[in-house]
């Protein structure tokens, strides 16, 4: 992932909470200095409005306009000689500024009032904030030590949380979605809930109720994630019998070649049988590649690949269908001039079809679990 200009690790809600980073997170980030979440939020750049004018090239005079407002960072205007560096964006007059404390100040109250196993979330909150483009774009992972999914055996738990962010450039509305970190391999599992967002238009919403709903959804996901992982671990693909190898599985699914290579390497290494990985292991390979080797920025490309990775875990049927369609297209492109498929291509499609039929037998189980989770989301919202 493209490196952020500024990274800030936080632990605990405020100066009244004595919270340490979990050992796995502390080691991953080489023992970073931390600040409380409330202080980290208040250190983020904020925006304010100022008037806009344009220069008439015929009269050489400046003309004020009320149709647009410049979004600027006030502290930078007061302290830096280069005024242009303080400019974020020039939106229309319908743009409403939502500053960090508008969004995350209400979250502080919700964290104080919400607990996990009797411990307020305010005492187990930790994570990281990442700033881009002079602090005009911010993304953060907020996690809760203790709100986790424990897998069979001696494997480290999966820690639950949310990913959230915004920008002042008109590209990213304030957003939040469920997030988890597989502490055994430091892989990020993103988009565990539907993304919720609030645009910079009109009146600012009731953010406290917004956060209450989101954290309620997160607890529901934590309760069901174990079941999805257990079911996916029972669905295997015999790579040795397939017309593609591990890396080709990921490229057929839609990952670029460099990510596919890293995902395949991780899946081979962690599968009980390297030639017959299960869907949970294949999903873990994809999240490993995205977490540690993705070359783009946080945004639409990462979201697209995250959806592909999550389908491996939550919708194996759609994953196999996508691979089958991509392979069928490849066979068609390699057909001879008479449009006849090669024997090898036809055999390959037959092998994939057998896997698809086996997955189909379990598809109802995945669909039922997802429907139950969606129904609980709706009940929680009501």
Structure report:
Strands 1, 2, 8, 9, 10, 11, 12 and 13 form an eight-stranded mixed β-sheet that branches. The mean pLDDT is 86. 37% of the residues are buried. It contains eleven helices and 13 strands. It is globular and about 75 Å long. Strand 1, helix 1 and strand 2 form a beta-alpha-beta unit. It has 382 residues and is an alpha+beta fold.
**Total tally of structural domains:** 3
Number of E-type strands = 13
Main structural class: alpha+beta
Strand content: 15-25%
First-residue to last-residue Cα separation: 38 Å
Order of helices and strands: EHEHEEHEHEEEEEEEEHHHHHHH
Low-confidence segments, ≥5 residues, pLDDT <50?
A: none
- Provide the gyration radius in Å: 24 Å
What is the oligomer described by this structure?
A: single chain
Which descriptors apply to this entry?
single chain, 382 residues, alpha+beta, 3 domains, 8-stranded mixed beta sheet, 3-stranded antiparallel beta sheet, 11 helices, 13 strands, 44% helix, globular
């Amino acid at each position: 992932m493209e490196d952020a200009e500024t990274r800030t690790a936080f632990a605990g809600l405020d100066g009244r909470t004595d919270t340490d980073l979990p050992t796995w997170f502390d080691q991953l980030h080489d023992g970073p200095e931390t600040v409380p979440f409330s202080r980290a939020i208040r250190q983020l750049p904020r925006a304010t409005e100022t008037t806009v004018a344009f220069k008439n090239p015929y009269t050489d005079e400046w003309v004020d306009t009320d149709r647009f407002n410049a979004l600027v960072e006030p502290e930078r205007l007061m302290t830096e000689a280069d005024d242009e560096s303080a400019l974020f964006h020039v939106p229309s007059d319908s743009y409403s500024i939502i500053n960090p404390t508008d969004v995350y100040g209400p979250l502080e109250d919700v964290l104080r009032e919400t607990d996990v196993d009797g411990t307020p979330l305010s005492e187990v909150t930790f994570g990281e904030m990442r700033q881009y483009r002079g602090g005009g774009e911010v993304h953060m992972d907020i996690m809760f030590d203790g709100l986790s999914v424990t897998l069979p055996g001696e494997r480290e738990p999966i820690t639950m949380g949310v990913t959230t962010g915004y920008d002042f450039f008109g590209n990213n509305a304030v957003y939040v979605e469920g997030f988890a970190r597989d502490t055994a391999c430091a892989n990020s599992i993103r988009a565990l809930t539907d993304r919720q967002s609030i645009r910079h238009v009109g009146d600012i919403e009731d953010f406290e109720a917004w956060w209450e709903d989101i954290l309620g959804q997160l607890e529901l996901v934590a309760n069901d994630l174990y079941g999805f992982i257990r079911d996916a671990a029972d669905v295997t693909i015999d790579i040795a019998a397939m017309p593609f190898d591990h890396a080709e599985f990921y490229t057929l699914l839609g990952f670029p070649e460099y990510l596919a290579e890293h995902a395949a390497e991780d899946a081979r290494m962690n599968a009980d049988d390297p030639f017959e990985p299960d869907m949970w292991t294949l999903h873990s390979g994809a999240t490993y590649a995205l977490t540690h080797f993705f070359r783009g920025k946080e945004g639409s490309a990462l979201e697209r690949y995250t959806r592909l990775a999550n389908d491996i875990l939550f919708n194996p049927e759609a994953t196999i269908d996508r691979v089958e369609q991509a392979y069928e297209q490849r066979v068609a492109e390699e057909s001879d001039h008479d449009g006849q498929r090669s024997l090898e291509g036809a055999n390959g499609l037959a092998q994939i079809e057998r896997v698809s039929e086996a997955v189909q037998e379990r598809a109802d189980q995945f669909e039922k679990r997802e429907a139950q989770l969606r129904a609980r989301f709706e009940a929680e919202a009501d």
